[in-house]
Design brief:
heterodimer; A: alpha/beta; Rossmann fold; Ubiquitin-like (UB roll); 5-stranded mixed beta sheet; 24 helices; globular; B: 215 residues; binds flavin mononucleotide; binds iron/sulfur cluster
Chain lengths: 607, 215
């Protein structure tokens, strides 16, 4: 985006422009109420101001944030704004007191307000905002703002080329699928292009069923036209006449914004018949699915649109025989947004970043035990350490990071001592994880790795469609064994069974769900073998997480006999006279942990 | 025609054929369970797996490609077929002694073929029904021990003493113990015959006996 248009969008045409992010994540933290408070403020004070609805920047730990841009003042971002704070913040800002701001978006003069620049903050500095360039800046529901930032220029350029030339541009970019496997995008396009068929389809995969991952939602909610533009370019390249955007019904805002984008694009002639005066006809339907994790798998996704969501054996691949038996291109939300951006700003801007085998940037979603939860766009090949420590701020005070689960519920756990590894498809695979859609869940020393593995298999087991045997029954057995181990009923032979079964499930399952579901177990067995052995051989949970393997005790010296714990205990397991050390009857204790949290003197410990 | 190689045998098959067609045409066999030619090939059981150019794929539903090199058996394939077959058995309620199929079923033949020791001797016992020794109150080990002996002893009216050892599945044990109890085989007699294998009964087994006999 040129400096000029960024400036224009941030300042608008009033004395004051307040930017409020309206997206699923900010709404959940109260952005709507903040929006109303700002409206009230403007009405009450009569300042010449407007509110600018924007998408989400991806810095979740700031939610809800606002950005204020006033005449002759630098745009300032405020974090964790409550409706009651609005008045004070705006009053101060207008009197040129920027204290309390989290960062300045940019400077307009040399004046020092004592507030750091966003660009100097590690969570921003190390990002390369390529696909997410507009997120949190433009109004996602305004096609004009998108166009003003260069939007649909990519499509114009593409339509002046022959489809083969478009595919060649994608080949040169080295773009690989951002939905999981990292398949070269151009190759998939070429195969689809080469099929002879009266009809072809393109589908944008926006299922994003991984719990805790939301980069696709964020991108589509904050900059939906970028996804639509990418899909139109893809359709032109492969010769499709109809496209679908597959979204979960439980992400209504994402679906609504994409739908609106499609309608607006149609009005402007980017969709429909004879697009931009060429002979190319294409239209898009937003498909709202009931949703299941497996629906993200491309054959299941296609089957879901046809009315029965279950994977089928490939080949034939969708590129050859997909929706209604016709050649079908399936690409991820981020992949398509990359395509649009590459055509807008040029291949070189993309290939500047990334590794030899894997170009460009990728949005990663970092959650779990870190200071700064968020979605960060960084070059492919960035180290785990940089992402977790520099961008996401590392562990919460007093904690140590133990591992990171990369790639969603069927990814793998990478231990701390391998955090210098680079986040790219091949490296992750070699170390037992997957890129997946780019979700990272950070686990600190309060986490039990066996329990983590159990947690993920609970999820994948519940989401197994049940069609093929290794996944349906094998995952059940793995999950049962893990259940026994965390309950202190494991057997030494279980480790071998988990390994053999896990490898067999991965190699013989029908689809990628079973083909990756054992990863969390296999990777924790590989790197945290000692934790399994502690559970099995010594009936101990080293992290003191697994309820059956911990006991709660009161330290006599610390206990003042206040009785708070006894009142909290749901099992009446705590006895003692007032003023005298209390005692927990381990046979009655249900290991809920309520007493430990409640004791005002820190007298209760887990052993 | 498409040229493929099955275990070093070169063969031509029509385009669009699945690997299984090539394998059969080349004169080899792979174990099949869920596949029914022309009726069902959704590749759900993953028992018919083979290697195509080194990759494990289900032969019933994987199309041949020119020059494809197919291996129908090696250590890894056997191991995984066996694991997958054990998964089939894990979900099957094994009551061979009462099953109307009288052992003439795919599970029994496959378990022998794959060397999976999950099916009890009753599956191949010729004394079904009224002749069953257990039903006559004789503590025969058939319901608890591994098939594959063709159940010769029972034909001579001698109870099975489980030459091939115990099946290992707990659910099969439970079903068997219930069967003993229904036919008034005393707990002590049962414990006595199982001591052939275990001087001291494993706790898993003891617990089950207690569970079933106390009910
Ligand atoms: C269980 C499972 C879930 C998946 N979920 C998604 C998803 O939510 N989004 C996605 O883009 N791809 C998902 N995929 C990958 C798709 O099958 C497909 O490879 C991808 O959409 C292709 O797009 P790409 O080439 O742009 O990455 C999933 C795969 C599996 C096996
Ligand atoms: S691997 Fe799991 S999700 Fe995939 S087809 Fe088999 S049972 Fe269904
Ligand atoms: S852990 Fe829960 S059940 Fe146990 S003593 Fe404390 S409060 Fe009671
Ligand atoms: S809350 Fe703490 S100090 Fe009070 S009785 Fe319980 S253990 Fe003792």
């Amino acid at each position: 985006m040129s400096k000029y248009s960024l400036h224009e969008i941030i300042y608008g045409h009033h004395d004051l422009r307040v930017h409020v992010p309206i997206s699923s994540c900010t709404l959940a933290t109260g952005a709507q109420e903040v929006y109303r408070a700002i409206e009230d403020y403007i009405k009450r004070t009569g300042v010449s101001a407007e509110i600018h609805r924007v998408g989400c920047m991806g810095l979740c730990f700031l939610d809800p944030w606002i950005m204020i841009a006033g005449k002759n003042l630098p745009p300032a971002i405020y974090a964790n704004v409550k409706p009651l704070d609005v008045e004070k913040i705006l009053d101060r800002y207008l009197s040129e007191d920027l204290s309390g701001a989290y960062a300045l978006r940019f400077r307009i003069d040399d004046k020092d307000y004592g507030i750091p620049l966003l660009d100097d903050k590690p969570e921003w500095k190390y990002q390369v905002r390529f696909v997410s360039r507009n997120c949190g800046i433009i109004d996602p529901e305004s096609i004009d703002e998108y166009i003003r930032t260069g939007g649909y220029e990519g499509l114009r350029k593409a339509l002046k080329m022959k489809p083969e030339e478009v595919i060649e541009v994608v080949r040169k970019s080295g773009l690989r699928g951002r939905g999981g496997a990292g398949f070269p995008t151009w190759l998939k396009w070429k195969i689809t292009y080469e099929q002879k068929s009266d009809e072809k389809y393109v589908i944008c995969n926006g299922d994003e069923g991984d719990p805790g991952a939301f980069m696709n939602r964020l991108l589509a909610e904050s900059d939906p036209h970028r996804v639509v533009e990418g899909l139109i370019i893809a359709a032109y390249a492969v010769g499709a006449t109809k496209g679908y955007i597959f979204v979960r019904a439980e992400k209504p805002l994402m679906a609504d914004r994409l739908e609106k984008a499609v309608v607006e694009a149609r009005k402007k002639g980017f969709l429909g018949e004879k697009i931009l005066g060429t002979s190319f006809n294409f239209d898009i339907e937003v498909y709202r699915s009931a949703g299941a994790f497996v629906c993200g798998e491309e054959t299941a996704l296609i089957a879901a649109i046809e009315g029965r969501a279950r994977p089928r054996q490939r080949p034939p691949y969708p590129a050859v025989s997909g929706l209604w038996g016709k050649p079908t291109l399936v690409n991820n939300v981020e992949t398509l947004a990359h395509v649009a951006t590459i055509f807008q700003v040029g291949v070189e801007e993309f290939t500047k970043y990334g590794t030899e085998k894997s170009k460009g940037t990728k949005m990663f979603c970092v959650t779990g035990a870190v200071k700064r939860t968020g979605v960060y766009e960084v070059p492919v090949g960035t180290t785990i350490k940089k992402l977790v420590y520099e961008l996401a701020g590392g562990p919460i005070e007093g904690r140590k990071v133990k591992a990171v689960q990369v790639g969603g519920p069927s990814g793998g756990c990478i231990p701390f001592n391998l955090f210098d590894l680079e986040l790219d498809y091949e490296t992750l695979q070699a170390y037992g994880a997957i890129m997946g859609s780019g979700g990272l869940v950070v686990i600190d020393d309060s986490g039990c790795m066996v329990n983590v593995a159990k947690y993920f298999t609970d999820f994948t087991l519940a989401e197994s469609c049940g069609k093929c045997l290794p996944c349906r029954v094998g995952m059940k057995i793995m999950n049962d064994i893990l259940g026994r181990i965390v309950n202190g009923e494991g057997d030494v032979s279980d480790i071998e069974v988990l390994r053999d079964l896990g490898v067999s499930i991965i190699k013989t399952s029908l689809c990628g769900l079973g083909g990756s579901a054992p990863n969390p177990v296999l990777s924790t067995l590989r790197y945290f073998d000692n934790e399994y052995r502690e559970h099995i051989e010594n009936r101990k949970c080293p992290a003191k997480v697994c309820p059956k393997l911990v006991t709660y005790v009161i330290i006599n010296e610390k206990c003042r006999g206040c009785g708070v714990c006894a009142r909290q205990c749901p099992a009446n397991a705590i006895t003692g006279a007032a003023g005298k050390p209390h005692y927990i009857d381990s046979s009655k204790c249900v290991r809920c942990g309520a007493c430990l949290i409640s004791c005002p003197f820190g007298a209760i410990e887990k052993t | 025609m498409v040229k493929v190689k099955v275990n070093n045998v070169e063969i031509d098959v029509p385009p669009g054929s699945y690997i299984i067609d090539a394998i059969e045409k080349a004169g080899f066999k792979v174990p099949l369970l869920c596949y029914l030619q022309d009726l069902f090939n959704e590749a759900t059981c993953r028992i018919c797996i083979v290697k195509a150019n080194g990759r494990i794929v289900p032969s019933c539903r994987f199309p041949v490609q020119e020059g494809m090199v197919i291996t129908t058996s090696d250590d890894e394939l056997s191991k995984m077929r066996k694991i997958n077959f054990e998964l089939v058995l894990a979900t099957h309620n094994i009551i061979c002694w009462n099953c109307y199929r009288k052992g003439s079923c795919l599970l029994v033949s496959l378990s022998k073929e794959l060397g999976v020791e999950g099916i009890p001797v009753c599956s191949e016992c010729s004394l079904y029904g009224d002749l069953c020794l257990v039903k006559q109150g004789i503590p025969c080990l058939g319901p608890l021990t591994i098939a594959g002996c063709e159940a010769e002893c029972t034909k001579q009216n001698a109870p099975c003493i489980g030459c091939r050892g115990f099946v290992s599945s707990t659910s099969t044990w439970r079903n068997a113990l219930r069967f003993y109890k229904e036919n008034n085989i005393k707990k002590e007699d049962l414990e006595a015959i199982t001591r052939i294998f275990w001087p001291i009964l494993p706790s898993r087994f003891q617990n089950l006996i207690r569970e079933v006999y106390m009910q």
